[in-house]
């Protein structure tokens, strides 16, 4: 397979990606081997080289998009993130180019590391890369260059991070400075402080929230686990590695379920333009031996993610990663996204640190969870229910515990999948009460083998208690609305299909027949004078000829408080909505399964 790049600036030779022939013997699911990863890394590094400044200290990638940190910081980001890719590739020639940049960057053209500034993020990438390649890069630098670089990095030890995964950037810098003996006391304080901070956010089961609140997404894998586990391994601290490696192992047991049969990661959370950075924790588990996954499954999931994006236009005609998901797509960007931001996808190449004869590269690929069987998997920390179907490889995430209103709609919708993306107008997978669909202040109410529940309050003061029950590809969604004025319109929307998938929404109780809002199925009803229950059956499926929804499930509703779900398989589940004193004015509704 080949992709030809367009002309780089100043008439320089364009980059061409020529991936090796697929190997369907060793890799029956993706065809990708270590050679594909090496070739992709080499091509990405070659493609960015023409965009370096003459001194190679900054990489100003093309395009009009500038992050809120400004062009200079964006140029540093281009250097640091592609340096990290070069570090995983361990190519002495390429690393030599980055050595040139170190001669004029730190203490020169690079912006200073300051409180809550983007250079703090990039300092961590520089420090980690230098630590991983010390014999190939750091040890070969002239002493004045080392001194200026260490001095520039030192500011990261005391710069105030944002209270989230940023706390791990001083840890990463501190680990490197400790190793080289520079400012050891300050470095040790920074490491200890950052590691203490993430303890506040560990919720168990291998999951962290990314700072205060309930912010759960891929940052768990490519930041909250990546930095402390790598630090423990590089330091040789077995006690730390037992702690953080054990958490990683627990996390990967859930994480493996977040990839669809076509290799796609779930389209949920922020910074989605990092794309196959999703492979990083998979490789990290293999690198440290702290993984529940067989080697062939690890490679299948990681290679599936890389292949998914390369096959769908993530790299443009110049060989550059675009700001987007498949191709360019501003809907997945944040204000901090600059032209080089996608190159945190470099983390996905962590597996190249494993030797070519490691079993993760030599074992035959094995299917991931979405390719083995239909799965319903509760995830306690985030209060998610994961639902996947083998026949179409679709993974669905039912969200009853994760939110970050700054990045709505990528956090606060009721459901996400590997084949759809959140719609803004009209909003998908929402409950709208009197025109208000914003879901914040989510209170998780529990998750079980086939269900999840939560509650929240809308701006008007109306309270919504939501429940999902699933089987196969079918979902029963129930929403109890309390505190809304009688006659207030309640609208429920379903999945916004992203391709050939079929999205269905069938009203069951309290709602009128369904209709579509610009491709998003919707049903409507009105609130009563007391808490009112609304129930729908939903389905997102890639199967070409699925059985009718009405043949797969029936729902009985009793007293607006209780519903029983009868599946065609003969299984039945009963749930009751309760409040303190079980009175109509209760404000803290819960859901109780029988």
TrEMBL record:
Designated name of the protein: DUF2264 domain-containing protein
InterPro entries on file: DUF2264_N, UCP014753
Domain DUF2264: 33-367
């Amino acid at each position: 397979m080949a992709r030809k790049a367009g002309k780089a600036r100043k008439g320089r030779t364009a980059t061409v990606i020529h991936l090796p022939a697929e190997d369907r013997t060793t890799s029956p699911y993706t065809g990708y081997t270590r050679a594909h990863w090496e070739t992709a890394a080499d091509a990405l590094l070659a493609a960015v080289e023409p965009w370096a400044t003459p001194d190679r200290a900054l990489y100003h990638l093309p395009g009009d998009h500038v992050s809120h940190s400004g062009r200079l910081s964006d140029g540093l980001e281009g250097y640091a993130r592609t340096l990290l890719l070069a570090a995983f590739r361990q190519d002495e020639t390429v690393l030599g180019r980055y050595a040139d940049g170190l001669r004029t960057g730190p203490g020169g053209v690079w912006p200073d590391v300051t409180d809550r500034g983007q250079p703090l993020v990039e300092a961590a990438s520089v420090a980690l890369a230098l630590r991983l390649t010390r014999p190939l890069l750091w040890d070969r630098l002239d002493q004045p260059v080392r001194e200026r670089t260490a001095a520039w990095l030192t500011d990261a030890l005391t710069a105030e991070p944002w209270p989230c995964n940023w706390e791990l950037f001083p840890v990463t810098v501190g680990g490197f400075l400790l190793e080289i003996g520079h400012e050891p006391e300050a470095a040790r304080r920074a490491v200890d402080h950052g590691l203490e901070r993430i303890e506040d956010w560990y919720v168990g089961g291998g999951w962290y929230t990314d700072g205060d609140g309930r912010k759960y997404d891929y940052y768990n894998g490519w930041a909250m686990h990546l930095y402390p586990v790598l630090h423990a391994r590089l330091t040789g601290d077995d006690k730390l590695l037992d702690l953080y490696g054990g958490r990683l192992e627990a996390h990967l047991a859930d994480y493996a379920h977040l990839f669809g049969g076509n290799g796609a990661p779930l389209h949920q959370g922020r910074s989605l333009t990092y794309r196959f950075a999703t492979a990083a924790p998979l490789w990290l588990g293999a690198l440290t031996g702290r993984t529940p996954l067989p080697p062939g499954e690890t490679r299948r999931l990681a290679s599936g993610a890389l292949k998914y994006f390369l096959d769908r236009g993530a790299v443009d005609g110049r060989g550059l990663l675009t700001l987007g998901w498949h191709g360019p797509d501003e809907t997945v960007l944040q204000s901090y996204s600059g032209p080089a931001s996608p190159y945190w996808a470099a983390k996905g190449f962590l597996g190249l640190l494993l030797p070519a004869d490691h079993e993760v590269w030599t074992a035959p690929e094995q299917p991931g969870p979405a390719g083995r069987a239909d799965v319903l998997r509760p995830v306690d920390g985030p209060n998610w229910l994961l639902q996947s179907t083998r026949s179409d490889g679709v993974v669905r995430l039912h969200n009853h515990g994760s939110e970050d209103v700054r990045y709505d709609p990528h956090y606060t919708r009721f459901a996400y999948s590997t084949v759809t993306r959140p719609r803004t107008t009209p909003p998908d997978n929402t409950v709208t009460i009197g025109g208000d669909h914003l879901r914040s202040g989510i209170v998780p109410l529990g998750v079980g083998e086939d269900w999840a529940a939560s509650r929240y309050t809308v701006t008007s003061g109306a309270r919504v208690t939501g429940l999902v029950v699933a089987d196969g590809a079918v979902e029963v969604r129930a929403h109890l609305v309390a505190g809304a004025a009688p006659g207030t319109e309640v609208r429920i929307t379903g999945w916004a299909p992203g391709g050939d998938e079929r999205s269905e929404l069938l009203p069951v109780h309290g709602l009128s027949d369904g209709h579509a809002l610009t491709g998003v199925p919707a049903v409507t009803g009105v609130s009563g004078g007391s808490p009112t229950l609304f129930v729908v059956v939903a389905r997102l499926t890639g199967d070409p000829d699925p059985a009718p929804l009405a043949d797969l499930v029936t729902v009985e509703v009793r007293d607006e408080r209780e519903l029983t779900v009868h599946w065609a398989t003969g299984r039945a589940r009963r749930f009751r909505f309760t409040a303190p004193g079980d009175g109509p004015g209760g404000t803290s509704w819960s859901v109780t399964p029988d």
